[in-house]
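Listing S7. Sequence submitted for prediction.
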Amino acid sequence: MSHPPAVLDEDVRVLRVIARGHPNRLMTATTHGRATQVPALTWDEIQVAVNATFGALADAIAHLVANDYIQSGRQQPNFIGRLRGESEISFFWATTRGLQFLDGLESAPPKSDAGGLTSTTEDLEVVDKVMRHLGYDMTQYGVGAALLSLESGYSHSETAMNLALVSFARDCKAAGTDILRLAALAAHASAMMKILAEYRDAGVLRDDLFKNDMRALMKVAVVDQDQSTWIERVLSDPVAAGDIVATSRINYDRA
């Protein structure tokens, strides 16, 4: 193999995605002693955007790194994250050399089927607005999860509904056997069901998704022998439940 290796069409697709970056995340990268802000993407975000297998993406990343078209960095989990057994996260961003390479291509503007993150900051703001209506504030990790959901074809409201369900399940799990907190959570669930029914009636929530998530929300909220099973089922999604996606705007101790 020549070094650096030739850049293939598949590699260019990946580079385009990395060059566009995250629409709502900036990280500090230091190169040759100079710190800059870069819209870095995680491996999972890139893989979803280009719809590639792990092996194919690994090859593309290796080719781009070898050509100095992208750089990567790692973020260690905080203290609480380490206690939960979380792993470090790798982020990738385009270098000046990589951006110049894209500018030099005759077909620099990507084709409509070339893949990439098409969701915008405005899309994420809509999801955030719905989340706040449902009683939650998205975390930075939640923004990433929302982006993946939007790129997978879910609407703003469908994305918010799923993130709210995951957040609610986390809160119920944390409440344990505290009857007062569980009662407050049940009231929150009832309010969310009414709000989401309005979104469904407005045509921005698909009926089958609405029914599935509402059934899960009810099963998670009801204190019975099946509650813990449903909580774990909701929290089994590796992307949405990898970390806290949103925090409740409701103080359940005073609700």
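Caption to Listing S7: primary sequence and predicted structure tokens for the chain studied. The first helix runs from residue 9 to 20. The mean pLDDT is 83.
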